[in-house]
Amino acid sequence: MPLQVSDYSWQQTKTAVFLSLPLKGVCVRDTDVFCTENYLKVNFPPFLFEAFLYAPIDDESSKAKIGNDTIVFTLYKKEAAMWDTLSVTGVDKEMMQRIREKSILQAQERAKEATEAKAAAKREDQKYALSVMMKIEEEERKKIEDMKENERIKATKELEAWKECQRKAEEQKKIQKEEKLCQKEKQIKEERKKLKYKTSTRNSASRNLAPKGRNSENIFTEKLKEDSIPAPRSVGSIKINFTPRVFPTALRESQVAEEEEWLHKQAEARRAMNTDIPELCDLKEEEKNPEWLKDKGNKLFATENYLAAINAYNLAIRLNNKMPLLYLNRAACHLKLKNLHKAIEDSSKKFCSLEGIECQASDFKLSHHIPCDLHVYIQMA
User: What pTM value is reported for the model?
Assistant: First the structure.
């Protein structure tokens, strides 16, 4: 049971109440003070002091000073008036309990309001800080954009200056070429004039010469004409022969039919690889071979990865749809996955390719050969 403190002293004015509460060994660390408008409580184990105040006070501006084994309260009144007593008289236990509960509720509401106000202030501070940061970032971005624009303008000016220099250099080269051409033309004209002059002098000299001299001059002029005009090029044809594809196999061991079939399959596979199939984009060259894909599907079937094996067989069939074993192996995968209709369809295609006939789903079915409730195990080829 706590000890109720009753030896206290108090004084008052019209606006304030001064309460002195002696507590031996009291300190701030171990003292709990609770104050509202109509209730004051001090808990310092084992001491307890309660006061149900005569009139309301301003608990926010009221003060408490702890030290020298005494707590001194300065309580400011809400209304300027003199109190008859410090505590209300004639208060029973129920009324005391109601005052305590009301005071606790008021304190809780005030604490909640203070927390909300603190949170609101914090949010406002965050908004303000965010707006300041956004402004700073905007200024930095604008500064960077201005620097980029200035650099762009500078680079464009340098590029234009370089282009102008290049243009002037090209014009200078063009002028030099034209001057060289003009000089060459002048030289050619001078040479032609000299040639005409020589021919004219020779013609005049030939008139004075004998017929023998004329014949010799005519032969000389014909030689000059032949030397000045080049002869036309001779027409001919170039024949190209390609060596045939030959297998390095001895004649006694040669299997021409199988080799021709292999060449035919390889050509079809190359034509299929040249088509735009999205699945072939990420594959290597050796992985685009139907035989390689068939072996890959067989390995996946052995590890019971039937869906991956079906994908490998599908791609191999897209590359070469004339390999019966691909349909047979895919039918075995469908049987493992209980896709019986697809297994029947692939088996039908396999038998059609083996017999060398064209069959449709309505013409040739193997449904009467494979019961639906029977597991068929087919050894992979």
Answer: 0.35
